[in-house]
Amino acid sequence: MPVINPLSRSVVRATIAALAALIINTAPASAQSGFVGNVDDPVTGWRCVTPFCDTIRMPRTDCLCQKLNPTEKSLSRLRLKCVPPRRDPQNACALPRGFGG
To answer: What span, in angstroms and rounded, lies between the C-alpha atoms of 6 and 80?
Structure first.
């Protein structure tokens, strides 16, 4: 069995992600369930990335945050897992006060 080095794995992952994004972006409008893309999350007020607002973009950063409990309506109990873009340090996605974590 051939050994795949870590660089090749990252190239394969990036290629698969790009193909998935291409397929999703070329889906017919009827499959998008009316998601326009300029929608704010009702709990955080941040911009939604996905139609169900389970992934949101942190303002003033390029951090993407996934809701770990997406049905939660209380900001203090909402749990988010945020990741920075590759160029920024991990602490670039520190949550503001009032968030549950």
So the answer is: 29
Q: What is the pLDDT of residues 1-30, one digit of tens each?
A: 556 565 576 666 666 655 555 566 554 444
DSSP for 35-73? --S--B-TTT-PEESSTTSSEEE-TTS--EEEESSTT--
Amino acid symbol at 41: D
Tokens describing residue 47 = 């911009």
Alpha-carbon distance of 23 to 89, in angstroms, equals: 31
**Tokens representing 51?**
């139609």
Whole-structure pTM over 0.90, yes or no? no
Q: Centre a 10 Å sphere on the Cβ of residue 51 and count the other Cβ atoms it contains.
A: 14
Domain boundaries, the chain: 38-101
Residue recorded with tokens 């994004």 = 21
Stretch among 26-30, 45-49, 50-54, 84-88 having the lowest mean pLDDT: 26-30
